[in-house]
Amino acid sequence: DVIKAGETGVLLPEGDATALAAAVTALRAEPARAEAMAANARRDVEARFSASAIAAAYEAAYQQAVQRAR
User: What is the pTM of this model?
Assistant: First the structure.
């Protein structure tokens, strides 16, 4: 999953404007919580999508393909 509920963001039902408004209101009332989620999300993205992480994933896929070809 891209978003971890309550840790890296808020998951809402699609098209539910009331839930979106409630989530925004709650985060505005708790800026420290919003900042913590933003920091967690940034760390998660940097860990999963950094150049080194992508290179490692490509290398692993390549190694699997080589092993299957043998």
Answer: 0.70
Q: 6-57 pLDDT, tens per residue? A: 999 999 999 999 999 999 999 999 999 999 999 999 999 999 899 999 999 9
Query: What residues contact residue 55 under an 8 Å CB cut-off, 6+ apart?
Result: none
What would the 3-class secondary structure string for the chain be? CCCCECCCECCCCCCCHHHHHHHHHHHHHCHHHHHHHHHHHHHHHHHHHCHHHHHHHHHHHHHHHHHHHC
Length of the chain: 70
**CA 7 to mean position of chain CA atoms:** 9
The single residue listed with the structure tokens 């989620």 is 37
- Cβ atoms of 12 and 23 within 8 Å: the answer is yes
